[in-house]
Amino acid sequence: MSQRQKAKAAKADRASFFLVKPATALTRKGRSPTKDGGDTRSEEEPPPSPEKWMDEFVKAHNSLADKLQEIDSTLHDQALKRADMEDRSRHNNLRIRGIPESVLNPALHNYLLDMFQALTPETHPDQLIIDWAHRLRRPKHLPNSTARDVIVRVHFYHAREVVRALPRPKNLYGLVGGNPTVPQKPDTSHDHIALTRDCIPLGLPGKAINSLLGRTACCGLIVSGQGEIQKLGPRGN
């Protein structure tokens, strides 16, 4: 055999090797070659059925829905606690009505100290401490000729109760300007006011509610009716 024939034979052997290689050594893992050149899935699992896939999807959806409901409930409870804490922080506040607009904010502190001292002459001046005082914004229904209310934070709770318990004279002991009065209603948050407004129909005649014992943003209304004390929800439910 000549050298040219030997070279052609070696080239044919190399070509046949690469043609056979994909069917033997280059087959994918988990598949075995067959006689016709194909392969079979010997170790792979069959694909999941649509029913099984939908079942897993529904379970995941229900789990997320339950967690979302828990988060909503937690946020609602936190909002009620925040409103209750806000109302509790207002316990030492007084809402004073009738102070003329000519008394500006820098002069409110001294004006209120003189007024409280005139209301409670037996109280020591050291007990009459005012943390801050400011005017509220004018409501839409309030005419411009009416003075805006003033919110006062009294440092000591007992001093605030002494002021609130006193009767209100027509002329506040000769104080110059205006006719200030201290309403009996405590300073409360807007949520608390909305709660009270929604529960007004419960106290109308024929509702079998003798008295409203208390209002809180957290536990709703505590009422007395038909010899029993009942607690209603935040919206009178």
Please provide a brief summary of the model.
With 237 residues, the chain is of the alpha+beta class.
How would you describe what is shown here?
This protein has 237 residues and is an alpha+beta fold. Among the domains are: 93-165, 2-Layer Sandwich (Alpha-Beta Plaits), CATH 3.30.70; 190-231, no CATH class. 40% of the residues lie in helices and 16% in strands. It has five helices and eight strands; from the N terminus they run H-E-E-H-E-H-E-E-H-H-E-E-E. It has helices at 3-24, 50-89, 105-119, 157-165, 190-198; strands at residues 31-33, 39-41, 93-96, 130-135, 150-154, 211-216, 220-225, 228-231. The protein has a three-stranded antiparallel sheet with strand order 3-5-4. Strands 6-7-8 form a three-stranded antiparallel sheet, with helices on one face. Strand 1 and strand 2 form a beta hairpin. The longest helix is centred in the first third of the chain and has 40 residues, at 50-89.
